[in-house]
Design goal:
This protein has about 160 residues and is mainly beta. It is built from 2 helices and 7 strands. The strands form 2 sheets. The chain has a 4-stranded mixed β-sheet with strand order 1-2-4-3, with helices on one face. The longest helix is centred in the middle third of the chain and has 13 residues. It is globular and about 45 Å long.
């Protein structure tokens, strides 16, 4: 009888990006509608959710310390109890927010973050990128959220 190696575990990632135009976020229920498109709020539950936001600076609603605090809270409410926040990393209004399924949190290790401003004089953070790298099971992953100047000649 022929022996077959065990099948590799297939994991599903949900990656999305949104240029908010510095407008306040919708209520968490509307975040749920946005995230529901093939993700945790449908019948499929990805292992990791990665949300990249650009131009996400606005006056926070009462009860929130900052725009980042409000965004992360509303995304977390939309994600529900099945997910836990893994990382939040920002460069001014460029943000990367990661959630992992609660029962898979222990499979994440070696979490690293970095950022690179490319705005005015190459140092201002209105343009640039943030990155989060991690190991999930035995796989190295790196996620980048970026916001660069429009038109190719400006990049």
């Amino acid at each position: 009888q022929q022996q077959h190696p065990p099948a590799a575990s297939a994991e599903l990632l949900y990656l999305t990006s949104w240029n908010m135009g510095n407008a306040p976020p919708p209520p968490h229920a509307e975040f749920g509608d946005w995230l529901r498109k093939g993700g945790a709020l449908s019948s499929v539950f990805p292992s990791l959710y990665v949300v990249a936001l650009q131009e996400s600076e606005f006056t926070a609603s009462p009860g929130f310390a900052s725009a980042e605090d409000e965004l992360v809270n509303k995304i977390g409410l939309a994600m529900g109890e099945r997910y836990v926040r893994l990382a939040v990393f920002s460069l001014q209004a460029i943000r990367l927010v990661l959630f992992v399924r609660r029962e898979q949190f222990h499979l994440v290790s070696q979490l690293r973050k970095t950022k690179q401003p490319t705005g005015i004089a190459g140092v201002y953070g209105n343009k640039g990128a943030v990155a989060v790298a991690l190991r999930f099971r035995d796989t190295e992953l790196c996620f980048v959220g970026a916001h660069f100047a429009a038109r190719e000649e400006r990049v």
